[in-house]
Structures are given as structure tokens and as C-alpha cells.
Write a structure and sequence with these properties.
about 80 residues; about 60% helix; mainly alpha; single chain
């Protein structure tokens, strides 16, 4: 069962295809990318990225949220 077919209490929700399409569109950024929603998704993306690109992203993110970057680096190392 997909996540979109369950509500926050784990019960089955009636989701129409139009609602799923709208939710998917809502997740896309204005630049045409796909919104990353979740710490684990970010860690997985960073693990898959080439080391130079990963460090570039982490440096830019550190300027905005140093605590988040410390947490990401900890998860990437461990």
C-alpha cells in the first residue's frame, strides 16, 4: 500500500488519482526539480553523490544551517 493511500493514523484513505497527481505536482519545486522531504532521503542522496559535489552542497548548506550539516556529516560518517 502506498504512503498516499494511508492517512496519518495508518487507516486506509480514499485517494483519487487526481489527488495523487496534485500531491506529486505540489512536491516539485518551481525550478522543475523534485522536493526532498526527509532526512534519510537527503543522506541517501549525499551518499550517492560524488565526493566533490557532496562537499560543495554541504559547504553551501552550512552557511544557512550549520547544525543540520553537522548532523548530516555525522550520519554520512557512521
Amino acid at each position: 500500500m502506498s504512503a498516499s493511500s494511508r492517512d496519518i493514523y495508518g487507516r486506509n484513505a480514499k485517494v483519487q488519482p487526481q489527488q495523487e497527481d496534485a500531491a506529486e505536482e505540489k512536491g516539485k519545486s518551481e525550478e522543475g526539480g523534485i522536493r526532498i522531504n526527509g532526512f534519510a532521503q537527503v543522506v541517501a542522496m549525499l551518499e550517492a553523490a560524488d565526493p566533490q559535489f557532496r562537499e560543495s552542497l554541504l559547504r553551501r548548506l552550512a552557511a544557512r544551517d550549520p547544525r543540520l550539516v553537522r548532523s548530516l556529516r555525522k550520519d554520512l560518517e557512521g
